[in-house]
Amino acid sequence: MKKIAVLLSLLLLSIVAVSAIAADKVVVVPLNSSRVQPELVPLAQGEISTYTGNILSTGHYGISSTVLNGTGDVTVTFTSSWVGYPAVMTGSWATSALTSNTLVYYNASINSNTIRFYTKDSASGALENGYFSFVVFGQKQ
User: What's phi and psi for 19, nearest 5 deg?
Assistant: First the structure.
């Protein structure tokens, strides 16, 4: 009887996983019965151009608006505010080897919903235009 229950559970899980994959969805299966902490789910993610201040991909979420402040300087406003300071992961990417030395810096405010991102040349520290991606984690207000 236990074998049948296990097989039915696996079959149901595979049907849900396959239909979710077909719909470009992510299926999370917890390994224990405790709930997933909300802080582990990103508040926002996206790809930004500091040439234009525009969001680059259709895979972004949690972004309300962007403002280009100047060369290599973009402010991103998010749909949710956080408690304290958020954890932010960034990375720059290049369209050629000539622009591969770009670093991303950011300035996030406490209990806010905006982050100012800067793309800089790693050698000189001067602001320069580029492309970067980010993920923001934190506790929602």
Answer: -70, -35
pLDDT the model gives residue 111? 94
Query: In whole angstroms, what is the distance from residue 46 CA to residue 95 CA?
Result: 17
Contact 102, 122 (CB under 8 A): yes
Closest CA to 135 of 53, 63, 32: 63
Per-10-residue mean pLDDT of the chain, 141 residues long, equals 52 51 58 62 90 86 94 94 93 68 89 94 87 91 87
Task: Note the pTM of the prediction, 2 decimals.
Answer: 0.71
Cβ-proximal residues to 81 (8 Å cutoff; 6+ apart), any chain: 111, 112, 113, 140, 141
Q: Which residues contact 138 (CB under 8 A, 6 or more apart)?
A: 39, 43, 82, 83, 84, 85, 86, 87
Least Cα distance to 60 among 77, 48, 73 occurs for: 48
The DSSP result for 70-99, as a single string, is ETTEEEEEESS-BSS--EEEEEEE-SSGGG
